[in-house]
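Request: Could I get any protein with tokenized structure?
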Amino acid sequence: MPWSSEPSVTTMPDQVTSSPSIKLRYFAWVREKTGRAEEDIVLPGSVSTVAELIVWLKSRGPEFEDAFRRPNVVRAAIDHTHAKPEASLAGAREIAFFPPVTGG
């Protein structure tokens, strides 16, 4: 799938349609593997943590399965704050996924 800078809105069958959308952003090789930089989604009712979101994302297709193959390597931020896998998504407006960052 070619990379696109255009945001998209993803509708999934198990979504709760009255929920507000949340922006997902993908950086570096996570973006390359998913084929998109960002998208707006409505979280399924079964997703309430970063770890559950990753499991759900992996089910969306081979490009997401590949990007999140090693979830312990992918980092997440909720509204610009680093988040652990067990972090709650309640009230989040943006979730970003990126590889580990090293300084030098």
